[in-house]
């Protein structure tokens, strides 16, 4: 991994990040058994990606000018917005600041090399430095590989819901 350049994304990286994320989400959808049109990441504009880059912590790994891995950490000052049941509400009731992970993608030929672990560790470390109590993320509960990946990092499945047309799990880890 040391030959890669790790840094925050810049607005000019948005188009290349769009391609990386969309390619990764095709595989994610296939492995999860969900239609591609159920994911907003498949249709988001370059402007939307630029906005996410400017307002959040979009951590990336580059091979030259090409992004080969990315993860976005957002700081959420109202984590109860993720609450859709009493179970989730109870889990989040003592959380003042949460990190939320999204747009996690690694180029296909670099999966299972440790790059995803490095990106996840960087996001968790950043969340801790920013004072987050917990880090949250959503993933399809039918994607057993991703669920296992997250559990191996210390996440637990908190709850699930189907508001987006598929069973989506909310996972969390206490870091503070």
Describe it for me?
By secondary structure, the protein is of the alpha+beta class. It has a single domain, classed as Gcn5-related N-acetyltransferase (GNAT) (Aminopeptidase), CATH 3.40.630.30. The protein has five helices and seven strands. The chain has helices at residues 14-32, 46-55, 86-92, 115-129, 144-152, and strands at 5-8, 57-63, 66-76, 98-106, 134-140, 156-161, 168-174. Strands 1-2-3-4-5-7-6 form a seven-stranded mixed sheet, sandwiched between helices. A hairpin with a 6-residue loop joins strand 6 and strand 7 (168-174). The longest helix is centred in the N-terminal third of the chain and has 19 residues, at 14-32. It is globular, with a radius of gyration of 15 Å. The model has no long low-confidence stretch (mean pLDDT 94).
Short recap of the structure:
This protein has 176 residues and is α+β, with helices and mostly antiparallel strands.
Features:
7 strands, Aminopeptidase, globular, 5 helices, 176 residues, alpha+beta
Radius of gyration: 15 Å
Largest sheet: 7 strands, mixed
The computed structural class is: alpha+beta
Kindly state the percentage of residues in helix.
25-40%
Using the coordinates above, name the CATH class: Alpha Beta
Stated plainly, the CATH topology is called Aminopeptidase
In the predicted model, the low-confidence regions spanning at least 5 consecutive residues are: none
Tell me, briefly, the overall form. Answer: globular
């Amino acid at each position: 991994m040391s030959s890669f350049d790790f840094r925050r994304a810049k607005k000019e990286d948005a188009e290349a990040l769009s391609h990386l994320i969309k390619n990764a989400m095709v595989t994610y959808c296939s492995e999860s058994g969900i239609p591609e049109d159920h994911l907003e990441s498949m249709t988001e504009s370059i402007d939307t990606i630029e906005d996410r880059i400017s307002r959040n912590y979009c951590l990336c790994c580059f091979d030259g000018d090409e992004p080969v891995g990315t993860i976005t950490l957002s700081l959420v000052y109202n984590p109860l917005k993720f609450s859709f049941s009493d179970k989730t509400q109870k889990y989040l009731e003592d959380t003042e600041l949460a990190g939320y992970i999204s747009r996690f993608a690694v180029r296909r030929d670099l999966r299972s090399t440790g790059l995803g672990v490095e990106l996840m560790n960087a996001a968790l470390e950043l969340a801790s430095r920013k004072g987050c109590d917990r880090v949250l993320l959503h993933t399809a509960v039918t994607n057993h590989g991703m669920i296992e990946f997250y559990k191996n990092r210390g996440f637990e499945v908190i709850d699930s819901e189907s508001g987006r047309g598929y069973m989506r799990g909310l996972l969390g880890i206490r870091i503070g």
